Amino acid sequence: MTISRRNLFKAGIAAGAALSIPSVLRAQTASPSDARIVRMALGKLSAFDPVVTTSDGTVTHALAIYDTLFGTDSKFGPHPQMVGKWGVSDDKKTYTFELRDGLGWHDGTSVTAADCVASIRRWAQVAPGGQLLMARAKDISKRDDKTFTIALKEPLGVLPNILAFQGPFIMREKDANLPPTEQVTDNIGSGPFKFNHAFAKPGASFTYDRNEQYVPRDEAPDGLAGGKIVKVDRVIWQNISDQQTAVAALQAGETDFLWTPPVDLFALIESDPNLELQVLDKTGQDMFMRMNCLQKPFDNVKARQAMLYLIDQEAMLRAAYGDPKYFRTVTSMFGNETPVSNDENTGWFKKGGDPEKARQLFKEAGYAGEKVVILQPTDWAESSNGAQLLAATLRKIGVNAELAPSDWGGLVARRAKKDSVENGGWNIFITTEPEAIIGNVITEVILPMNGESAWYGWPQNDEYEALRNKWADLETLEERKALAREMQRIWWDYVPQVLIGQQVVPIARRKSLTGLIGVPSWIPFWNMQKA
After folding, report:
1. From CA 512, how far away is CA 265, in angstroms rounded?
2. Beta bridge partners of residue 429, listed in sequence order
3. Which is nearest to 120 in space by CA: 102, 108, 98, 137?
């Protein structure tokens, strides 16, 4: 590949940035067992409880230290994981689950059915699939130390899917007895990696050691199902907030993996014979902005509808991702490529947007100059760039937009607040969701509109919820497609969020790191190895 002057300039910046990498990261490369240590630049990890937040980083952490009752394969089919045997009664109302042998907590105690029952109950208070389960559950209880049952008021044939797809991470009973709003901080699970508390350096790095007592399943790994076979001794989660510094660390061999390489440095990465870009998430992510439906001005539907017309998807995508080969526009709430994607009620979409229509709708909403706070993650360039363009676009139509910069960890903490902006709340943040999972209506976290039980932004629409709750009982794809159109009609009238577009971008890694498992959004630590 021919290296341009622009790339040479970037290479010079990257080389200089390598000198500024914290010495703690450079020192770790001197370990005598370096071939068994993987260093991964995964961003800042500030929340450790996957019940309290659905942040991708938190789920990646949870996948390492916790285990699940069921796992999903690469086609999102459910398979037993911690469960050894299971069955359902003739009337389809009672499920019995028996744990497999060899399950133990990192503190040396055994995993029991009581742990599973408590974990399901805690998770079910906030997860969409769990809420559906609890609405139909008559009882969830342990039968003995290894067996528990779920008794239902009426059949729920998708129960294994619910437990597998974004289902509960199993925690010790004493941890799972905490309310879902209080974060579990002990970081003791039964999964393939142990959290190394002694080596934890908040803000800099966290260390995960191979759990030598973990007993993997016999099946080959497939997605998040099958045998979780650990082939390294240690994974170090690095927080390198500056992306150029992260690329420099990758080039220098001081990190092995970079989750979100900056698009404008792709050419530099590709020109390095030791590095490789790899698309792990084949269907990509849908980027969107979520609005706070509890606070002005977006407590008014007209203001939310204004955002639909305001957004120029192509301009936002160019600001975020640069090269059009990495993105495309999208109008369905279910994405471009899921089985239930459709074009119902998408007349709002217009190339270039319609700022005058947006201005008029803000006026009809009674907008009176209230501050609109946009959360801006400074360590995620694509979202940060989109937030800056969004603020400028809002100001052009007379909206008092203000950016609230922080790292992603700060954004995750702030988006959970339901307060007014004067009391530390927010109005808009930009994030992504894997396209592959958006069509899973029962378990997808961003789809409910059940008020304060919904995902951040807390939309509420009873008519929509009545339709969503029918999904679990539909038997054919055609029935689901018809229901999806009805749901989308209401969705784009209510407007809980606004689409920015679909993108497929790679991770960056050193070629010596292989065996990465490709699943949407998260990075499993098992199966990978270093040459």
Report:
1. 20
2. 290, 375
3. 137
CA gap 239, 530 in Å, rounded:
21
Backbone angles phi, psi at 329, to 5 degrees: -75, 165
Enter the pTM of the model: 0.84
Residues in the chain: 531
Instruction: Say if residue 368 is exposed, middle or buried (CB neighbours under 10 Å; 0-12, 13-18, 19+).
Output: exposed
Q: Other C-beta atoms within 10 Å of 501: how many?
A: 26
What is the biggest distance separating any 2 CA atoms in the chain, rounded to whole angstroms?
71
Q: Quick one: DSSP state of residue 201?
A: B
Owner of token pair 């029962």? 442
pLDDT for the residue 32:
39
Q: Cis peptide leading into 160, omega within 30 of 0?
A: no
What are the phi and psi torsion angles at 517 (to 5°)?
-90, 125
- Say if residue 483 is exposed, middle or buried (CB neighbours under 10 Å; 0-12, 13-18, 19+): middle
Instruction: Give the pLDDT score at 311.
Output: 97
Average pLDDT by stretches of 10, the chain with 531 residues: 33 41 42 80 93 92 98 92 97 97 97 98 96 96 97 94 93 97 95 97 96 96 95 97 92 96 91 96 93 98 98 95 90 95 97 97 97 95 95 98 95 94 96 91 94 96 96 92 98 98 94 94 95 89
In this prediction, residue 33 carries a pLDDT of 65
Alpha helices in 137-242, H assignment, sequence order: 159-164, 173-176
The residue ranges of DSSP E strands in 332-380, in sequence order, are: 372-377
- Could you give the 3-state DSSP secondary structure of residue 488? helix
